[in-house]
Every structure is written in C-alpha cells, then in structure tokens.
C-alpha cells in the first residue's frame, strides 16, 4: 500500500493536472499510473477514492454539465487545501469520534 493517505494521493493528482480538475475516471487512471499497488487484483480501492472525494471538504465537485449535476462525469478539484495540512505538508487526521 502506498505510504501516504488517499486524501494526499488524490489531492496530488488533481493539483498536478494541467487544469487542476479531474473526473473520477481520470483520478483512478492517474493513481494506477503512479502506484503499482492499484494495478493488482484488489479493486476495492476505487470505493475508497469515491469515499474520500465525497467526505473530505477539501474536494469540491464541479459539474461538467449544469443539466446533469449528478452525472458520473463531473470534475473534482481541490479547494482550500492549506487548511487541511500540517506544517510539514502532511494531511491532518480527522478527529476520532
């Protein structure tokens, strides 16, 4: 498994993209290119990506088509990421419940 969190990996691939926004499919493809872990038989990690995109407030959904805001081809971008980072650049952990 990669040594960084899903949040950090997703944020990195989005921020390093030319337009600073990617669709879910593009995010998945980029993660597969960068980390060999994602090329194995285990496919459950894709659900983890979706989970992180929808739960972390630093990820913002940008509708590709205003008439289809719930489509699967929406873009995702990163907003206000600085407030989620520790001084060393790592992501803050969520508080335990």
UniProtKB/TrEMBL annotation:
Question: What is the first-listed, main subcellular location in coarse terms?
Answer: nucleus
**Gene3D superfamilies in the record, alphabetically?**
Winged helix-like DNA-binding domain superfamily/Winged helix DNA-binding domain
Superkingdom assignment = Eukaryota
Listed Pfam families:
Forkhead
Record-annotated DNA-binding residue ranges? 1-96
Which UniProt keywords are present, listed alphabetically? DNA-binding, Nucleus
Q: Among its keywords, does the record have RNA-binding?
A: no
List where in the cell it is found: Nucleus
Q: Name the SUPFAM superfamilies on file.
A: Winged helix' DNA-binding domain
Q: Which GO terms describe its cellular component?
A: nucleus
Q: What is this protein called?
A: Fork-head domain-containing protein
């Amino acid at each position: 498994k990669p040594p960084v969190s899903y949040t950090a990996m997703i944020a990195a691939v989005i921020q390093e993209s030319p337009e600073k926004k990617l669709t879910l499919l593009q995010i998945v493809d980029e993660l597969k290119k960068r980390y060999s872990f994602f090329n194995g038989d285990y496919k459950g990690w894709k659900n983890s990506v979706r989970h992180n995109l929808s739960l972390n407030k630093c990820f913002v959904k940008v509708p590709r088509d205003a008439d289809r805001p719930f489509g699967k081809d929406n873009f995702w971008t990163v907003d206000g990421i600085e407030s989620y980072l520790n001084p060393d650049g790592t992501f803050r952990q969520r508080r335990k419940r």
